[in-house]
Amino acid sequence: MPTTADYERMLRDADLRVTRPRVAVLDAVHRLPHADTESIIGAARAELGDLSHQAVYDVLRALTSADLVRRIQPSGAVARYESRVGDNHHHVVCRSCGAIADVDCAVGHAPCLTASDPHGFTVDEAEVVYWGVCPACSTARLPQ
Ligand SMILES: [Zn+2]
Ligand SMILES: [Zn+2]
Fold it and tell me: What is the distance in A from the centroid of ligand 1 to the CA of 134?
């Protein structure tokens, strides 16, 4: 896990001012892959004490636009955040409980699918989400 000094360097390298909420939120996103906003607020508050929802939303927005954090939002689910950025990896999502896991991009860069007809568009990304049932949920579904 990165240290506080690492987080401070990431922020400075991204031209973001180093603040305690930014360090706490960055740490929460690193420790809790694919966490939703509520979990990140909980983790950041455990670290800092008082911290408003709005402050955490603002920090997440700043970290996401600086590409320090990636925001994903499978359809029908709340937004999740992760620290694994810039590698065009995909996600497999459980239809039953919403569990999310990383799936490496088979090609390694975007767009990893070729459009059969891009209609003249310059395509730079194919958004791939694998949907299914996670091991815990498939076990729970087995007849007794
Ligand atoms: Zn599940
Ligand atoms: Zn991921």
Answer: 4
Structure tokens at 45: 């508050």
Closest ligand to C-alpha of residue 74 is: 2
Ligand 1 centroid from CA 138, angstroms = 7
Cβ distance 32 to 63 under 8 Å? no
Q: Give the ligand with the smallest distance to the CA of 83.
A: 2
- 19-53 pLDDT per residue, tens: 999 999 999 999 999 999 999 999 999 999 889 99
Which residues have C-beta under 5 Å from ligand 2, the single-atom ion? 82, 102
Q: Is 66 exposed, middle or buried (0-12, 13-18, 19+ CB in 10 A)?
A: middle
The pTM score is 0.87
Return the H-helix or E-strand segment holding 139.
Answer: helix 135-141
For residue 144, the model assigns a pLDDT of: 59
Question: Residue 137: nearest ligand to its CA?
Answer: 1
Give 122 Cα–ligand 2 centroid separation in angstroms. 25
118 band by pLDDT with thresholds 50, 70 and 90: very high
Domains and CATH numbers, the chain: 4-72 (1.10.10.10), 87-141 (3.30.1490.190)
